[in-house]
Specification:
Helix content: 10-25%
Oligomer: single chain
Strand content: 25-35%
Mean pLDDT: 96
CATH superfamily of the largest domain: Vaccinia Virus protein VP39
CATH architecture of the largest domain: 3-Layer(aba) Sandwich
Radius of gyration: 23 Å
Largest sheet: 8 strands, mixed
Number of helices: 10
Low-confidence stretches: none
Distance between the termini: 58 Å
Structural class: alpha/beta
CATH class of the largest domain: Alpha Beta
């Protein structure tokens, strides 16, 4: 039997849970909001903390709202639909500041205003799980349930664009009608500015009838169907047989970024536009300067930086992404002022960084593991300004500590980017200057 306690919620943690204290322990309450008094049931006990679920709100926060999605609480895709956007952003800002203070032992001179954008219908990339569950009526297609590997029984999604949300029931019917319905575990969604792609992961070959059904589905809904028989690199067009023209625009810089359906791109294109604008504005590249774009990907920041007249060197870990970035530079008439190369930035040393030459400015946009080896390698001749775009406040804080305490930089400013509204995911941007 679970223990029930009356608790006062003090703040939100980095998972979007309410934080309370009881009998000398921290209690994390799913569904609790700051300022509320709640009755919660503890479902897991540890020596220094407990995990609990909300049973009843005794004193409600003015920030509490009715979740628009009827699947909220069961589907694990969102964790904060019960909180208004102001509270979500404030909680994420606090997570960023707490990480900088406690892990990096630094604080920014300035807190930047949060970057906002679409809060519903924003998710232009998604990986949906497909599974046949007889006791739930057949085929399910959607995100996993909260704290579970089960698939949520859902027929719509408020954070997917409406045209993709409307396809969820149709996908259930399509996959359920295939002869290999138990061997289609995943559908990846990729939506560009001019095309929509669904990538069907196949563990067995399609039959002739299956192929006809998939072609009819693609034609009826105006999407490009791809099939993937192995890793992401095996995704190929099925119908239409020609590749989709997938791209997103950064109109402020006159740039189009082309991508393949399994490439990494930001899920929220509207917020990405604002993020790129701010990153380039903070970096302040000047004509004739030399700028490094570390973890450059497809050129999301490289090409807008190059529009300033600066010379840009983009570095990425795989040759495939470097080739995409080169193609995007050519597509946008920027090949003459950009160069891209393959290197493992997780193994950067002072010697390998020095071999690239001096840079006036640097942009760093690493994955969740951060860029510890890279920032450790920056010496006295390092760039006078660094803009760091992060998807993990803990590794940003660690790397900020290195830049400030070991490399002689000042953390001039930092702020959050609400790339994933209604989730606890914290993206952020920080600026470092030489003292």
């Amino acid at each position: 039997m679970m223990d029930m306690n009356t608790l006062s919620i003090e703040s939100l943690d980095q998972e979007g849970r309410g934080v309370a204290h009881h009998d000398g322990k921290v209690v994390f309450v799913e569904g609790g909001l700051p300022g509320e008094e709640v009755v919660a049931s503890v479902y897991r006990k540890k020596p220094s903390f407990e995990l609990a679920t909300l049973n009843r709100v005794v004193r409600e926060s003015a920030a509490r709202q009715r979740p628009p999605c009827s699947y909220f609480g069961r589907c694990g895709g969102c964790s904060l639909q019960h909180a208004d956007l102001r509270t979500q952003v404030a909680g994420k800002q606090r997570v960023l500041e707490d990480n900088l203070r406690h892990l990096g032992k630094v604080m920014p001179d300035v807190i930047f205003p949060a970057i906002h954008g679409l809060s519903w219908g924003y998710r232009r990339r998604a990986r949906l799980t497909a599974r046949h569950v007889a006791k739930k009526g057949g085929m399910l297609v959607g995100f996993h349930e909260k704290r579970s590997s089960y698939v949520a029984d859902m027929t719509s999604c408020e954070v997917l664009p409406p045209e993709l949300s409307a396809l969820l029931p149709e996908l259930r019917r399509l996959i359920g009608s295939l002869s290999i319905y138990q061997r289609v575990p995943q559908v990846e969604v990729a939506l560009g500015d001019a095309a929509a792609v669904l990538v069907f992961r196949l563990l067995d070959p399609l039959t002739d009838r299956d192929e006809a059904l998939l072609r009819d589905f693609a034609d009826a809904h105006g999407i490009h169907a791809y099939v993937q028989r192995g890793g992401p690199e095996t995704a190929v067009p099925f119908h239409p047989a020609t590749a989709a023209d997938l791209y997103y625009e950064l109109p402020e810089f006159g740039v189009q970024i082309a991508f393949e359906p399994t490439d990494f791109t930001q899920v929220n294109h509207a917020v990405n536009r604002v993020l790129v604008r701010r990153a380039v504005g903070l970096l302040e590249p000047q004509p004739g300067e030399r700028v490094a774009d570390m973890f450059c990907g497809l050129g999301n920041f490289s090409l807008p930086i190059a529009r300033s007249g600066a010379s840009v060197l983009g570095i990425e870990g795989t040759r495939t992404l470097v080739a995409r970035a080169e193609a995007n530079a050519s597509r946008n008439g920027l090949a003459a002022v950009t160069r891209f190369m393959t290197a493992d930035l997780f193994k950067t040393s002072a010697d390998t960084l020095a071999a690239l030459g001096d840079f006036d400015r640097m942009l760093i946009d690493p994955p969740r593991d951060g860029a510890a080896e890279l920032v450790k390698s920056i010496g006295d001749n390092g760039p006078r300004r660094i803009v760091y775009v992060s998807c993990n406040p803990a590794t940003l804080a660690r790397d900020a500590g290195i830049l400030v305490h070991a490399a002689g930089y000042t953390l001039s400013g930092a702020g959050i980017v609400n790339m994933f509204p209604h989730t606890a995911h914290v993206e952020s941007i920080a600026v470092f200057d030489r003292r």
